[in-house]
């Protein structure tokens, strides 16, 4: 695991320089010689082979899957998806002093360095396992025939999860398994772009004051460097966002994003330029890419709708909601050519 402090960033920068030298060297070497050198470097795997594999970037064996199999996790099926969905306790009344867990909001995931250069056609999965059941919650899932084009290090992966609020009592684990289909129109021998296990420690954060900022974990693996940005949230509840078009054009052009009042960072729920035009259902409900936001009861949730007016002009409409332990809130707005109902359904995140 690597964090975002200065020492870690220095290590990452050194790794990037070494990777660039290695990549230039390999392009001029015979492929057979490169394979022979890698086989010699591998040696015996000192880790459990069920959860690990050889990483040519680190030149060592690394964990790629959750491997802490003890207690309730002893018979855990690593491929089983979590059956727990959102809004699980919306209708339940909790006493005022009831324990509120911590959570996290994943802001973005970026491939900030690629041995293959750019652009990249990326597919694969990003799975998160939280304290609730350690089962799979997909953040990103694309097949080989549905790649996302990454044009530069500034492009974020289009995240489609989590499907519910994450419980962050001890650790949260991310399993990264991203592959590249082709580079500059040419197939590559090793499609593994980024693969590994990222561990985020929630226990060590408990004794310290809340860090009201975006934090980062970095994964140096296979043929890339990946940055995952997130916000750690104390005393949290889950907010499920629904956008309903009451009147206006059939398709929504624009952006919908969320932020909490104490952290100046937007969490993109949908961008029609990136995700495609949003089409409402028969009841007018817009199908967003993401809809779950964790919010501290000590903050406010701010939803912002940027409705396209034509060209580069937008009508920007922010709306604030006060977090609750259950029930829901609705607010009606007029934004550009749209009359919109914003609804946030609140729920506790509980075992």
UniProtKB/TrEMBL annotation:
Protein name: DUF6598 domain-containing protein
Top-rank taxon: Eukaryota
InterPro entries: DUF6598
DUF6598 domain mapped to chain residues: 103-344
Pfam hit, one: DUF6598
Species name: Lolium multiflorum
Positions of the UniProt region annotated as Disordered: 1-50
UniProt biased composition (Basic and acidic residues): 14-31
